[in-house]
C-alpha cells in the first residue's frame, strides 16, 4: 500500500469520469474553453465574493486563452498526483468545476475541496451530487482518508452543501485566505473516509428534499 503512495508519479484514480443521473464529471477538456469563458463571465457577481484576490479584472481572467493555460497547469498537477481537477456537466452542459487539490499522501492522505456552479444550475442538488461523487472517488480509488472544505462563514449555500454531505465543522481559521480583496476568516469542515456508514452518494440521496 505505501509503495504506491511513496511514489509521487503515481496517482491512483486519475484520470476518471464519474456520473450519476444527469450529472457527469470528467477531466477538463480543451473543447470547453469558449463555454467556460462565457459561463465564468456571466457569473462574475455570483462567484467573485468567494474567489482568490487577483490584480487583473474578471473579464481578463476568464478568456478562452486563460482557460487553456489553466487547464495545462491543472493537467500537470493532476499527472503529478497533487490534484484532481473535474469539470461538471448537467444534462451535457458545462455548469461548473469540482477540484480536489493539495493532495498529500504518506500518513496524512488528505486533500482540500473546491467547487463552484453556474447560478442557473444552483438550488437543484447538482453541486452537492457532484461533490458527493468526487468524495466517494477520493475515498475509494484515490485512497484518501480526509477531505477538507474551508468555507467563509457568510457563504450559506456552501456551508449547507458540506453539512448536507456529512462534513463536520472543525473550527474557525482567522484571516485564512486572501479572497475578494482581503484576508477572510474561514470555517474548516472535514469528512473522513470512516465518518459515514455508507457512501457519500447514499448520504446525498437521503438529503434530497421530499
Ligand atoms: C456553493 C454552491 C456550489 C452551492 O450550490 P447549490 O446549488 O446551492 O448546492 P446543492 O447542489 O447542495 O443544492 C442545494 C439546494 O438545492 C435544493 N435541492 C433541490 N433538489 C435537491 C436534491 N435532489 N438534493 C439536494 N438538494 C436539492 C436544496 O433544497 C438546496 O437548497 P437550499 O440551499 O436553499 O437549502 C454555489 O452556491 C456556488 O457555486 N457558489 C459560488 C461559488 C462558491 O461559493 N464556491 C464554494 C466556495 S467555499
Overview of this protein structure:
This protein is α+β, with helices and mostly antiparallel strands. The chain has an 8-stranded mixed sheet with strand order 1-2-3-4-5-6-8-7, sandwiched between helices. It contains 7 helices and 8 strands. The chain has one domain: Aminopeptidase. The relative contact order is 0.15. Coenzyme A binds at residues 46-47, 50, 115-117, 122-128, 151, 155, 157-158, 160-161, 164, 207-209.
Domain count: the total is: 1
Unreliable runs: none
CATH topology: the name is: Aminopeptidase
Number of strands: 8
Following the backbone from N to C, one meets helices and strands in this order, namely HEEHHHEEEHEHEEH
Rg measurement, Å: 17 Å
How would you characterize the largest beta sheet? 8 strands, mixed
Mean pLDDT: 95
Shape: globular
Distance N to C terminus? 42 Å
Strand content: 25-35%
Amino acid at each position: 500500500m505505501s509503495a504506491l503512495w511513496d511514489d509521487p508519479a503515481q496517482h491512483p484514480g486519475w484520470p476518471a469520469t464519474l456520473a450519476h443521473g444527469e450529472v457527469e464529471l470528467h477531466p477538463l477538456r480543451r473543447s470547453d474553453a469558449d463555454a467556460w469563458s462565457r459561463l465564468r463571465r456571466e457569473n462574475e457577481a455570483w462567484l467573485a465574493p468567494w474567489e482568490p484576490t487577483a490584480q487583473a479584472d474578471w473579464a481578463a481572467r476568464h478568456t478562452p486563452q486563460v482557460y487553456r493555460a489553466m487547464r495545462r497547469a491543472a493537467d500537470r498537477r493532476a499527472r503529478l498526483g497533487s490534484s484532481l481537477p473535474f469539470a461538471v456537466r448537467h444534462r451535457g452542459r458545462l455548469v461548473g468545476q469540482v477540484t480536489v487539490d493539495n493532495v498529500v499522501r504518506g500518513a496524512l492522505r488528505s486533500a482540500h475541496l473546491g467547487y463552484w456552479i453556474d447560478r442557473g444550475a444552483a438550488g437543484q442538488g447538482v453541486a452537492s451530487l457532484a461533490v458527493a461523487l468526487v468524495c466517494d472517488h477520493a475515498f475509494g480509488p484515490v485512497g484518501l482518508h480526509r477531505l477538507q472544505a474551508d468555507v467563509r462563514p457568510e457563504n450559506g449555500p456552501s456551508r449547507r452543501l458540506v453539512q448536507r454531505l456529512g462534513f463536520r465543522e472543525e473550527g474557525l481559521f482567522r484571516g485564512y485566505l486572501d479572497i475578494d480583496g482581503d484576508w477572510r476568516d474561514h470555517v474548516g469542515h472535514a469528512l473522513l473516509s470512516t465518518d459515514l456508514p455508507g457512501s457519500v452518494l447514499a448520504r446525498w440521496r437521503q438529503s434530497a428534499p421530499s
